[in-house]
C-alpha cells in the first residue's frame, strides 16, 4: 500500500467526489441536503470555489480517491472575506483511518497561505452521528463556539448544528489583506 497523497482536486475527480458526497447525503447527517446533487452541479460548485480563490483538495491512495476537502466563504458579505468555512467528506470505508486529519491539516495550511484568518467548521449533528467530525476538528485545534439546537430535520429527527473555530495565521492581530 502506498502512502496517502493530498493534491488539488481536478474536474476528473468529480465522479469520485459525487459518490462520496452522495453517500454522505443519503446515509449521514454531515450534509443537510436531502437529495444528492449530480456531477454537473458538483462541478459547478467546484468551479465556483476555485474562481473565488478557495482551495479544493483530494486525498488518494493507490489511485483511489478516499476523501476531499474544500474551503469556501463563511458568509457572502465583504466583512467576512478573511473567514472561511471548511467541508470534509471521507469515503465510508476510509473513515477513521487518518484521511480526514491529513485533509484538514492540508486545508488549514493552504487557507493560511492564502491569507485567510479564521476557519469555521459547521458540523451537522456534532453531538450525535457526526461526533467523528467534532473530534477531528478538536484534534486539529478547533474550539467549540456554539450549538444551534434542533435547527435541521433529516432522517426523521431533529438535528443540532455545532460551530467550531480555528484561528489561522495572524488571526485577529492584524487587519486582513484587502
Please specify the SSE layout and strand pairing.
Layout (H helix, E strand, L loop, with lengths): L4 E4 L5 H14 L11 H13 L4 E6 L2 E10 L9 E8 L8 H15 L4 E7 L6 H9 L3 E12 L2 E11 L11
Parallel strand pairs: 4-5
Antiparallel strand pairs: 1-2, 2-3, 3-4, 5-7, 6-7
What's the quick description here?
The chain has 178 residues and is an alpha+beta fold.
Provide an overview of this structure.
- With about 180 residues, the protein is α+β, with helices and mostly antiparallel strands.
- The protein has one domain (about 5-165): 3-Layer(aba) Sandwich (Aminopeptidase), CATH 3.40.630.
- About 30% of the residues lie in helices and about 35% in strands.
- It contains four helices and seven strands.
- It has helices at about 15-25, 40-50, 100-115, 130-140, and strands at about 5-10, 55-60, 65-75, 85-90, 120-125, 145-155, 155-165.
- It has a seven-stranded mixed beta sheet with strand order 1-2-3-4-5-7-6.
- Strand 2 (about 55-60) and strand 3 form a beta hairpin.
- The protein starts with a strand and ends in an 11-residue tail after the last strand.
- The relative contact order is 0.15.
- The mean pLDDT is about 95.
Amino acid at each position: 500500500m502506498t502512502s496517502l497523497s493530498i493534491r488539488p482536486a481536478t474536474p476528473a475527480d468529480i465522479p469520485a467526489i459525487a459518490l462520496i458526497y452522495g453517500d454522505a447525503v443519503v446515509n449521514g447527517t454531515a450534509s443537510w441536503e436531502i437529495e444528492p446533487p449530480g456531477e454537473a452541479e458538483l462541478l459547478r460548485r467546484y468551479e465556483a470555489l476555485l474562481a473565488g480563490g478557495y482551495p479544493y483538495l483530494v486525498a488518494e491512495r493507490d489511485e483511489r480517491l478516499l476523501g476531499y476537502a474544500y474551503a469556501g466563504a463563511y458568509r457572502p458579505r465583504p466583512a467576512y472575506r478573511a473567514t472561511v468555512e471548511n467541508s470534509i467528506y471521507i469515503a465510508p470505508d476510509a473513515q477513521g483511518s487518518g484521511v480526514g486529519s491529513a485533509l484538514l491539516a492540508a486545508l488549514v495550511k493552504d487557507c493560511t497561505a492564502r491569507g485567510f484568518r479564521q476557519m469555521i467548521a459547521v458540523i451537522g449533528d456534532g453531538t450525535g452521528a457526526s461526533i467523528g467530525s467534532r473530534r477531528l476538528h478538536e484534534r486539529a485545534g478547533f474550539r467549540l463556539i456554539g450549538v444551534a439546537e434542533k435547527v435541521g430535520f433529516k432522517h426523521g429527527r431533529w438535528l443540532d448544528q455545532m460551530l467550531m473555530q480555528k484561528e489561522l495565521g495572524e488571526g485577529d492581530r492584524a487587519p486582513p489583506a484587502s
